[in-house]
Q: What sequence folds into this?
């Protein structure tokens, strides 16, 4: 038995169903901690399983299973809520399913309980920017409240009790969060889909298949909005019976949004296209961010928001931290923090966003990426020097060498040394860009910690 989509989270039937299950939370990260609070508030018993004991208390836990074997023999539970970092194809979870144990997630439970329409955003990069900008566009409509959460940082179970049927919910959804869904958002926005998390997914095909859960269970009354410029994103249309919309930076997309003649255009079904604002008015840098803006506009239109004040919201949106974030100008050079660029495609897009000579700081922990395209982009671009750090520094240096620009690649001990080297090579008018194309976990706790250190060093470290 599964919870029905129409259930309100305050209805006794939902609570009764959960009370009847022997529940375990697998992993106590941000999402499952929110789920723990949700269950505890309803006096629903649950166990907690994790490799390590939590550093801070978790209320409501009836039984703990801590240690390296925390996933061993999960058949004494009826319902497992996995943390997003635990792959749904993990052998322990597969064994539990074969024994009839239900495997779920905080995202799946939220979709089952949510009384309001939901728009989901996925893609390899740009999800956070698109979600935040979409929320800003929806906030221009006083007729409905907007809520956002998911991978952008706020678990949606934190606000499920506030929701009314007239509200609008926007969720940023990673492949981790999409993997085990059996229902899809009413509106699905698919950004560019490339290659990522091959240290987590079996291969690219399995990664893309996980993404397709965003639309696979839609109905004919739903809406699917795809990036017309991305061949992989276009294939999602074959998975969904929903009405098809699109967005593009190269061609008109009706219904949807697009860039043409230096303007951002929008069009609802059966209406005339409207020019919202010049792309030069956007604070976001780079064509990939024009695409994110078009995606957000299409999503807001699909949600029924009037476009009357979209132009003001687009001009006011300054972007999110660690995404081509302007830091400062020092000694005639501009510094940008793009620490969230953890894939090759994201760093290549960042390189295309600048016309000035670049000193690129890249490298970090492995995600199983192929750096050939990055080497080619560096060799063909305006890159004066590449300062490489972390585990993947030698592989990126080799890719740059194969592309014919090996003389500009320099391996550095760490981020402070890379920044010092950039300042030594740099000239007035140059841009120093942190855009790693790699994860952060070899030297940092997160991409945010890496970006924050970069910003702090830029602002406080004296020139060598």
A:
């Amino acid at each position: 038995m599964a919870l029905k989509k129409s259930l309100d989270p305050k209805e006794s039937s939902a609570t009764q169903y959960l009370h009847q299950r022997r529940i375990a939370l697998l992993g106590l990260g941000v999402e499952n901690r929110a789920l723990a609070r949700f269950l505890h508030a309803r006096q629903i018993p649950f166990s907690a399983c994790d490799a390590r004991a939590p550093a801070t208390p978790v209320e409501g836990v009836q039984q703990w299973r801590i240690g390296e074997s925390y996933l061993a023999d999960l058949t004494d539970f009826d319902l497992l809520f996995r943390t997003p970092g635990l792959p749904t194809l993990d052998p322990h979870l597969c064994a539990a399913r074969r024994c009839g144990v239900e495997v779920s997630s905080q995202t799946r439970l939220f979709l089952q309980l949510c009384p309001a329409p939901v728009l989901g955003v996925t893609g390899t990069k740009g999800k956070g920017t698109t979600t935040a900008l979409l929320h800003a566009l929806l906030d221009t409509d006083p007729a409905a409240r907007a809520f956002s959460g998911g991978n952008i940082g706020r678990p949606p179970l934190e606000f499920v009790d506030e929701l009314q049927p007239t509200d609008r919910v926007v969720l940023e959804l990673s492949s981790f969060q999409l993997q085990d869904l059996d229902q899809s958002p009413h509106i699905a926005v698919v950004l560019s889909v490339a290659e990522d998390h091959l240290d987590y997914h079996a291969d690219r095909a399995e990664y893309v298949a996980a993404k397709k859960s965003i639309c696979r269970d839609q109905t004919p009354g739903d809406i699917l909005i795809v990036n017309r410029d991305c061949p992989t994103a276009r294939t999602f249309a074959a998975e969904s019976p929903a009405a098809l919309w699109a967005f593009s930076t190269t061609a008109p997309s009706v219904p949807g949004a697009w860039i043409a003649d230096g303007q951002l255009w929008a069009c609802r079904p059966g209406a005339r296209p409207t020019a919202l604002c010049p792309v030069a008015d956007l604070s976001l840098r780079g064509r990939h961010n024009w695409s994110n803006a078009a995606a957000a506009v299409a999503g807001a239109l699909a949600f029924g928001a009037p476009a009357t004040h979209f132009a003001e919201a687009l001009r006011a949106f300054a972007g999110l931290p660690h995404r081509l974030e302007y830091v400062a100008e020092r000694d005639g050079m501009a510094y940008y923090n793009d620490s969230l660029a953890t894939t090759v495609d994201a760093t290549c897009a960042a390189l295309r966003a600048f016309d000035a000579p670049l000193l690129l700081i890249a490298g970090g922990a492995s995600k199983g990426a192929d750096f050939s395209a990055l080497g080619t982009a560096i060799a063909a671009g305006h890159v004066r020097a590449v300062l490489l750090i972390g585990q993947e520094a030698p592989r990126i240096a080799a890719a740059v060498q194969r592309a014919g620009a090996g003389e500009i690649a320099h391996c550095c001990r760490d981020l402070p040394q890379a920044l010092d080297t950039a300042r030594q090579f740099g000239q007035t008018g140059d841009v120093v860009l942190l855009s790693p194309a790699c994860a952060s976990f070899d030297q940092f706790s997160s991409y945010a910690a890496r970006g924050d250190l970069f910003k702090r060093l830029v602002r406080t470290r004296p020139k060598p």
